[in-house]
Amino acid sequence: MKKAGKVYLVGAGPGDVGLITVKGLECIQRAEVVVYDNLVNPALLKHARPEAELVFAGKLPKKHVMTQEETNAYLVKRGLEGKIVTRLKGGDPFVFGRGSEEADELRQAGVAYEIVPGISSSISAPAYAGIPVTHRAVATAFMVITGHEDPTKAETQVDWENVAKFFGTRVILMGVERIGKIAGELMKHGLSGDTPVAMVHRGTTPHQKTISGTLATIAGVVEREKFQPPAVTIIGEVARLRDKLQWFEQRPLFGKRIVVTRSREQASELVKRLAELGADVLEIPTIAIKPPKSLAGLREALDGLGEYDWLVFTSPNGVTAFFREFFQKFDDIRSLGPVKIASVGVATTEKLREFHVAVDLQPEEFTTEALLAKFKKDISCENLKLLLPRADLADERLARGLEDLGAIVDDIDAYQTVPDTEDRTGHRARLLAEGADIVTFTSSSTVNNFCKLVDAKKLSTTFVSIGPQTTAAAEANGLKVAIEATPHTIPGLVEAVLKL
Ligand code: SAH
């Protein structure tokens, strides 16, 4: 029997990737085909499976990609093929999203479907502008209206007279270019020209822009500010509360476009911190972590694990790679034996802690030089046997330095770093098209790989580095580093960005 297909009509939320539902996210993770359009944040697509087909069904100005009928037919076709399809729609699929039409086509064709509601821009764009759509004292109801139709034409389906008479907040989606006519119509039906109005462009995203005025003045503000769709318009007393309650556009890094260059596995913490401070973060994975060309060295080392006095870790990736092989061979952490553990810094130490392994030695400053100095000062290295599970291209100075102290060092390839050439989120394309205020570097290999992917010298942007080795690598690539993090950690890097 053929596998039955299913189509999930999923609300992707208004733009902030955090505003998708847990169920919506699961649908993206599970899908064989993801169909999305231009109000959907493409950063959500990174949650799709690597082999999932990503299909753009949006309407770009001028370049008409897929008509609604074509989209309906496409969803039916893939569903009938037995595919798991996730149809992502901006905001909520049933709020002016034509989701109901898609559901009805699927029903008629006998394709199973589910609706996953989303957070509509009609409430969230106002919220991110500091405007509550209801308020106990000033608005006990809100209505959501389409501004799509010309209110002065006879065939309009919106009863503007009743909109004017409504006792609560009026939220208008679409129709930025018709705001003058809409305001005129509302005033004609008796709404005061002093009624507060706010308009929120691309709410909940780093591009959010809010303008304020009154029914009488708003069209002039739109023109003066060259205010563009998509936007949500809020008409009513609640719009005034923005003066007190605005928060999103006030955050310290709001409006700053910052590039994060890390391997995909590690990017999340830095991205999260910068985004929370309001930055528009372009995540450009530059390196992918892979097993080394040969695992023979690591396997041999594990066979003779009992002979080592110290395991020396210089990166979280080294820890992950070491323990992946370790648990292939042993099923008990005690097989580590009495060996002592050294770590270059907090991130590596934290990774070790995930395996419930404590650290015996860690320098105050998180560099391999400081680690070497710490060995020199605290440990008598003569004839000790040390294992360094590291990246294939790691700097050899640490190993040589330890040997100079009399140690017997096995510097082995535990993993390799390769350039990550995929651009799933389109962030690399955005960097090339729009530029960035700041580019962050967190390791010398990310610098080198970033420079392979992008002509970095041509970017007019400020470079920030996590530490001296990374700075040296940037300089070797002809880039001038404006500020270096102290301490050499992700929080230190965030501090450095804030200082700028
Ligand atoms: N289903 C969507 C609305 C689709 S109609 C929802 O529930 O949000 C498209 C209109 O939605 C746009 O013209 C604009 O008015 C509004 N819109 C969608 N996302 C928006 C955003 N992030 N900021 C402001 N307006 C948005």
Describe this protein's structure:
With 500 residues, this protein is of the alpha/beta class. Helix content is 33%, strand content 21%. It is built from 18 helices and 20 strands. It has a 5-stranded parallel beta sheet with strand order 3-2-4-1-5, with helices on both faces. Helix 2 (68-80) crosses helix 3 (99-109), helix 11 runs parallel beside helix 12 and helix 13 (368-378) runs parallel beside helix 14 (397-404). The longest helix has 14 residues, at 316-329. It is elongated and about 95 Å long. Bound molecules: S-adenosyl-L-homocysteine.
Label this structure with key terms.
5-stranded mixed β-sheet; 5-stranded parallel β-sheet; binds S-adenosyl-L-homocysteine; alpha/beta; 500 residues; 21% strand; elongated
Summarize this structure briefly.
This protein has 500 residues and is of the alpha/beta class.
Q: What share of the residues does DSSP label as strand, in percent? A: 15-25%
Please give the number of β-strands.
Answer: 20
Radius of gyration: 28 Å
Shape: elongated
- Largest beta-sheet characterization: 5 strands, parallel
Bound ligands: S-adenosyl-L-homocysteine
User: What is the mean predicted local confidence, pLDDT?
Assistant: 93
Strand order of the largest sheet: 3-2-4-1-5
**Which consecutive residue ranges, at least 5 long each, have pLDDT under 50?**
none
Number of alpha- plus pi-helical segments:
18
- Structure classification: alpha/beta
Helix content: 25-40%
Distance between the ends: 62 Å
